[in-house]
Amino acid sequence: MSTGYQIKEQDKLYFLTLQVTEWVDIFSRQKYRDIIIENLSYCQKNKGLEIYAWVIMSNHIHLLVKSEKED
């Protein structure tokens, strides 16, 4: 469950950081990075996610994103 900020203005550009519980280095394995990349691609094609920049670190992900849709 999120304990941080909530996205209220859906059409704005946001910088997001997603971290792994207890900062486990799960993304040091290629198969887990591939899962993230496949899911981001799915969200672009099917959910209206616009990705401007992203980086996958060993235990967290940074994204610069916004939604094509307002809902």
Structural commentary:
The chain is α+β, with helices and mostly antiparallel strands and 71 residues long. It has one domain (14-67). 25% of the residues lie in helices and 31% in strands. The protein has one helix and three strands. The longest helix is centred in the middle third of the chain and has 18 residues, at 30-47. It starts with 13 loop residues before the first strand and ends with a strand. The model has no long low-confidence stretch (mean pLDDT 90).
Keywords:
71 residues, 3-stranded antiparallel beta sheet, 3 strands, alpha+beta
List the helices and strands and how they pair.
Layout lengths: L13 E6 L10 H18 L1 E8 L3 E8 L4
Antiparallel strand pairs: 1-3, 2-3
Question: How would you summarize this macromolecular structure in one to three sentences?
Answer:
With 71 residues, the protein is an alpha+beta fold. The chain has 1 helix and 3 strands, in the order βαββ.
Radius of gyration: 13 Å
Tally of individual helices: 1
Query: Structurally, how many domains make up the residues?
Result: 1
Q: Which structural category fits the helices and strands?
A: alpha+beta
Neighbour order of strands in the largest sheet: 1-3-2
